[in-house]
Amino acid sequence: MKKYLLFISLIVMVMLAACSSDEEGASGDEETTIKYAYWDKNQEDMLKDLVEEFNKDNPTIEITLELTPYDQYFTKLDAAASGGGLPDVFWMNGPNFVKYASNDMLESIDESISEDDLDTSPYPDGLLGLYQYEDKTYALPKDYDTIGLWYNKELFDEAGLDYPDESWDWEDLVSAAESLTNPEDETYGIAAFIQDSQATYFNTILAADGYIISKDKTQSGFDDPNTIEGIQKYHDLIHKHEVSPTHVQMETTNATSMFESGKVAMMFQASYMIPQFKANEYTNENVDVAVLPTIKKRSNVIHGLGNVIASNSENKDGAWEFVKFLSSEKAATIQAEAGIIPAYEGTQQSWVEATPNFNLQAFLDMAEVSEPYPVSKDTSKWATIIQDNLAKAWAGQLTVEEASEIINKEMEEILASE
């Protein structure tokens, strides 16, 4: 009898084990929770749609969204990093990337890309390069911003001028700005503002074949004659050609406000201004955008967000699956329909078609001639030096050459200490 009961018990145990195995097979891998941090509440609904789409093929990976406003975002991340508690996946931008990568806070994804034979060719080279450090890749691009030449069609029509196009060089821009400037009614051909380096003088530096920081992030480019030339040409719009409001005027009333009120005919500005120009009744009806003019070449800064994985994440496999999806063609299409330029080539048409009154193709064309946003470990330190000294040049307190010499010296000292 005892032998019989033992035999029955063994059979029951085997059956229970089999049932357990069947249940695990039906549900896939064990449940995994991925914390995903971001800072833009305007993208929250879109991110929820992405999570829902991701879970169709990955039902056992739960994604927890963590929103933190941008002005608190990196402070919170820094605190989490010191305590070993970074989110599994989180948004990263160019100015902060090197600090995190160089301090081993981020997981390199090169091996995962190789193992999955993932094609990275659909992403702009300049954007991929933004999230590479010491020959390692740490992020797949999510979206991007490029720079265009916004112009007022009404003012061009009144002056009898052709609109800017891909044939324009710097001389064409200056000539048109001179025709569009009318001191009597304080209307200017262009606004040579410097409050946003990404949208303004960084691009004239690159178009003049200069550079802001060397590719190995060890040298300043502000002793390069081409860099100085690119800054000088932009500076001359105020101090030589007198086709732009002065620096003081643009500190009192910002250049964008002047453009939105029809007092400025042209301005360099990024694709991230599209929602604002769409919302403004005057600009929505009267402005458009073209590619930037050439100096020695056509170029511009590209910047965009990347999705990174924390090096101390306990769920790296699940995190990689999510990161891979977030930069996939399917996810890019969802972003495009939500009004965000996706990084994945070939999915931007929905974004272009969403605003037919603006030539948004110009921003996609500028992505083809883009260079990564300049960064190092302590970007903010030398970026402040650049801004402060160029402001003095714009105000007439220094020449461009003098400002560049100071910037180069102090920037080199910071880079040497990194």
UniProtKB/TrEMBL annotation:
<feature type="signal peptide">
    <location>
        <begin position="1"/>
        <end position="17"/>
    </location>
</feature>
<protein>
    <submittedName>
        <fullName>Sugar ABC transporter substrate-binding protein</fullName>
    </submittedName>
</protein>
<comment type="similarity">
    <text>Belongs to the bacterial solute-binding protein 1 family.</text>
</comment>
<dbReference type="InterPro" id="IPR006059">
    <property type="entry name" value="SBP"/>
</dbReference>
<keyword id="KW-0732">Signal</keyword>
<keyword id="KW-0813">Transport</keyword>
<dbReference type="Pfam" id="PF01547">
    <property type="entry name" value="SBP_bac_1"/>
</dbReference>
